[in-house]
Structures are given as structure tokens and as C-alpha cells.
């Protein structure tokens, strides 16, 4: 079933409605859909490299708005809808741990999930459930999702279609390395100043 969904998402790259599909998939992925928008983003950028940054903006906007929908699910509907989405991803046991992360790190937990390969939807829903500060949630989502999608689009724009296989193969490792460097940089700044 996931392979069919993957192929369906990828089929939008050849459609004149590709940018609209990208927005919708990014929106849905941030709250319930299992396929990340990255695959369509890469395909669209490969097809029209001059529009790479436009596609990144569309993807980021859809993702942040979808994140707000996820937040709303967790805030108002955790018992009826949110728990089923979290269960689908097998993250029930992590809910208490996420509450701890939000309590201790607030925006950092959202930002790391927004950039990394961690299922972002689980974080958006539980952020609403734990009622973390909404402006902080929006800002962390905007920064992290934009960084992720603009980085992917920038790589495709700069290096062309050949970078697609590299991104597909090493995205998880690249995302983890970026997060480690980001957190390390802020820790260094905090330590020095």
C-alpha cells in the first residue's frame, strides 16, 4: 500500500497541478499522511530547476499549515482522532517522553523533528496535546521545515538531477548530521558566552 501511495505522490510531478499537489501533500504529511513531500519536491525541482525555490516555499507553507492542523488535532481531538494517528506510527509509548521533551526544550523538540526524518506529524499532534506555546511552535516549524525544504531544493538546483539519488540515499544521515551541528553550535555559543 505504501508503495502505491509513493507512486501516486510521484505521479504529480508530471502534472500541471504539481505545485498544488505539493502543497496538499506537505499539508497532509504534517498531520496524518505517511509519505513525506520530499519525493515530490525533488521530482518537481529536477523537472524545473529554475522553480526549485518556489517549490520549496510551497512545500514549507503547506507543511507549516499542516503542522497547525496537527496541533489542532492534538489540542482538541487527541482522544478521538490524534491517538489513532499516533498509534498508526507506533509512537504511543513515546508520548510521555515527548511531554518531557516539550517541557524541557519546547521549540527545540519541534525544530529537530521538523528538520529530521522523525515523523513530524507525531510531534505536531503531541505539541497540541501538551499545549506548547503556539507562537513558539509556529516559529520553530517555519524555521525547521523551511530549512529542510530549501536545502533539498538548493541541492537539486545547484547539482542537478544527479543529486536526487544522493539525497534519497543519505537524507537521514544528512539530517542527523545537520541537527548535531546545529545543537552543537548553539551549545558552543551558550558555553562561550
UniProtKB/TrEMBL annotation:
Domain VTT: 36-156
InterPro entries (alphabetical): DedA_domain (IPR051311), VTT_dom (IPR032816)
Membrane-traversing stretches: 20-46, 53-73, 122-142, 173-192
Domain of life: Bacteria
Keywords for the protein's UniProt record, in alphabetical order: Membrane, Transmembrane, Transmembrane helix
PANTHER family: ALKALINE PHOSPHATASE LIKE PROTEIN, DEDA FAMILY PROTEIN
Protein name per UniProt: VTT domain-containing protein
Lineage of producing organism: Bacteria, Pseudomonadati, Thermodesulfobacteriota, Desulfobacteria, Desulfobacterales
Amino acid at each position: 500500500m505504501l508503495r502505491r501511495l509513493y507512486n501516486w505522490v510521484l505521479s504529480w510531478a508530471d502534472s500541471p497541478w504539481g505545485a498544488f499537489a505539493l502543497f496538499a501533500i506537505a499539508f497532509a504529511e504534517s498531520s496524518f499522511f505517511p509519505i513525506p513531500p520530499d519525493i515530490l519536491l525533488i521530482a518537481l525541482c529536477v523537472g524545473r530547476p529554475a522553480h526549485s525555490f518556489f517549490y520549496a516555499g510551497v512545500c514549507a507553507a503547506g507543511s507549516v499549515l499542516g503542522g497547525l492542523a496537527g496541533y489542532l488535532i492534538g489540542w482538541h481531538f487527541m482522544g478521538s482522532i490524534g491517538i489513532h494517528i499516533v498509534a498508526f506510527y507506533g509512537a504511543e509509548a513515546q508520548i510521555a517522553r515527548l511531554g518531557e521533551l516539550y517541557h524541557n526544550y519546547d521549540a527545540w523538540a519541534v525544530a529537530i523533528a521538523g528538520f529530521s526524518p522523525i515523523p513530524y506529524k507525531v510531534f505536531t499532534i503531541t505539541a497540541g496535546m501538551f499545549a506548547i506555546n503556539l507562537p513558539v511552535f509556529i516559529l520553530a516549524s517555519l524555521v525547521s521545515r523551511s530549512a529542510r525544504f530549501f536545502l533539498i531544493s538548493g541541492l537539486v538546483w545547484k547539482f542537478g538531477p544527479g543529486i536526487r539519488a544522493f539525497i534519497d540515499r543519505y537524507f537521514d544521515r544528512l539530517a542527523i548530521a545537520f541537527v548535531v551541528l546545529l545543537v552543537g553550535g548553539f551549545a558552543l555559543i551558550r558555553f562561550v558566552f
